[in-house]
Each structure stands twice: as structure tokens, then as C-alpha cells.
Amino acid sequence: MSAKVWLVGAGPGDPELLTLKAVRALNEADVVMIDDLVNDAVLEHCPRARIIAVGKRGGCRSTPQAFIHRLMLRYARQGKCVVRLKGGDPCIFGRGGEEAQWLRERGVKVELVNGITAGLAGATQCDIPLTLRGVARGVTLVTAHTQDGSSLNWKALAQGGTTLVVYMGVAKLSEIREQLLMGGMAADTPVAMIENASLPHQRECRSDLSAMEEDACAFQLKSPAILVIGTVAASTAAYAREEPENAVGCQAASVIVDDHRERTRSYS
Any catalytic annotation for residue 56? Predict the structure, then answer.
């Protein structure tokens, strides 16, 4: 595993969602370059690696992508086993594809290791099936932020008939709502807004397309969060809940009490 770069997905936050292959790569790594959203508990699997933070967060000071490229190349050419550790999956809004291409063009061996993406994990923790026979025939993952600032084809998304999962959309709730309504999506389409997917402090706010911006404001929704838009978002969560103190006036808002780990232990 030496003299190569592993582009590894750390999953949405819960360290128990790491794959065995990801753990193996981390154990063998000489250098691990981590994103901001990677849970520190994951680093327990890096017993001998040098840890380098190269985070990128919207609205915050971020590490330039060109610098990350050069740093991976430098250590790989020194014969070190390099892991680029990303939140979620490296090839779902994680720049894994462009980093792999850049390195391979310079003769560096690259291997991609999938991670569970936040859109899937967050929905599952809220008991939302992204696909459901007779209800949702597919799922579409999109990001509200584009590299060139252009707008998505919201009309096509509104009429696609699939569950819509929106990443990085907290700052663009107004635009998302307006564009989907203009595209023909029903105003009462269920919406789930899920913050800190898979972590013990995960929260969710249930709403609908017409009210989601107002409800998100009352709920004080913050990044990182994903939006699940579609009929399946009306599913009733199986986990215990309690009303958040700061969600007065927020229709159908609730806080997930994440007892998933305790349930898992009880079955093992």
C-alpha cells in the first residue's frame, strides 16, 4: 500500500460507518490529509500517520485545492502511503474524481474507497427510505452550489418524479423553494431538513416545500445539513423525539434522540 494515494470516504460522521477497507488504508497510512467534517474519532485508526488538516468549508477560510494537489503529489513521490480522508463519499461532491485524475496524469497510483454519503445516512437515521415501491422510483442527489455559480435545471428536478436530496442548501433555501415551485412541484411536497447526519446531535425539521424556509429559520437550521424533498420525507421517524426549545412555531419540527448505537449494542 506504499507509494500511492488513497482517496477515502470517512462517511457522514459516525465512526462506526467506516468500511473495513477504509480502516485498513488508515492503519497503513504514513500521511492522512483530512477534511473539516471528518470526525476526530476516525483518526484512532491512524496509529502512525502524520495528520494534516486541509479543510474546505463554505463561507470559511479554506485550503486551496491546488495546494492539496501538490501536497498529495509531494508525499506520494517520497514513497509514502497517503490517505486523503473526506467526509461522506469521495466521489459525491467530494472532488474525488478530479483529484484522482490530476494524480494519475502525474503517474501516481490512486485507489478510491467509498464512504456512506450524508444524504443516505441522514435519511436513514430519520427512518426515511429514499426509494419506496409505489412512492419513489428513484433518488437524485444534487448540490445547491455550482463551481461557476450557474443555476441547476430546477424544472427538470421538480418534474423528475424522484426523491430529491440537496447538499449544501441551507444558504439557498429561498432559491430552492422558489425554483421548485416555479418548476411545477406541489407546494405541499414533504421536506425533511437534517442537520449533522448520523452524529449523536443530529437534528431534523419536517416541513413542506411552501413552508420550509420559515420553518428552517424557526428551527435555527445550520450547516452541515441536507434536504430530503419528496413524498418519502413524510415518513414517521421510528426514533424517540422531543420538541426543541428553540423551535417554537416550527411546524412538525423535532429533535432526533439518537439511540442507534445503544440499540446496535443490544443486538450484538
Answer: yes
